[in-house]
Amino acid sequence: MRIVLVGPPGAGKGTQAAFLAKNLGIPHISTGDLFRANISQGTDLGKQAKAYMDAGNLVPDEVTIGMAKDRMEQADAANGFLLDGFPRNVSQAEALDEMLNAESMKLDAVLDLEVPEDEVVKRIAGRRICRKDSSHVFHVEYKKPQQDGVCDVCGGELYQRDDDSEETVRTRLEVYHTQTEPIIDYYKAQGLVVTISALGKVEEVTARAMEALKSKADDK
């Protein structure tokens, strides 16, 4: 299957993408991973991206599209892929369609993870990260540390990242509504969108997603 995963920040896209890709036996292709890989490997696209990022500018669509194209042409993506973070806007969605059409391919589904805005704010603004090891993540409501402000694993100080503040989260949501949400309508016009609730336990959301994708495949 060739799938695009969409949803607001805090919807759990990265977590769900990893589980779904494993269950479906296809690679999880995330924009963040593409950027890190290209920059660390010193590819031409990576150098271009780094130059824009170092200057504090957004990376142009054509650079992101080029990275995605290179990745989708790798052997492990021959039988499908799950895109996470790409396309991010309608221009990128149109470019993806052109790429796939050129190879006589098409998307099978666009999975839309739906989460109420207040829940997104609660999820992200409540996160607390360990200063000693950023992989130790807690939450003031959903995963409380045994002692306030102290990491259960290593005893490091827990803090809220600047980009996890409520004000920043609401700004990120505005960007999502303005730039990314329009791709849902774009794909709805192609009959590709399946929307599921991303509320509940991780495994419940994964089961919901797998059932929705199966139903979509059965409809074809």
From TrEMBL:
Pathway(s) this gene product operates in, as recorded in its UniProt entry: Purine metabolism; AMP biosynthesis via salvage pathway; AMP from ADP: step 1/1
Principal location listed in the UniProt entry: cytoplasm
EC numbers: 2.7.4.3
GO cellular component: cytoplasm
NCBIfam families referenced in this protein's UniProt entry, alphabetically: adk, PRK00279.1-2, PRK00279.1-3, PRK14527.1
Subunit note: Monomer.
Protein name as annotated: Adenylate kinase
Originating species: Streptomyces fagopyri
Organism placement in taxonomy: Bacteria, Bacillati, Actinomycetota, Actinomycetes, Kitasatosporales
Gene: adk
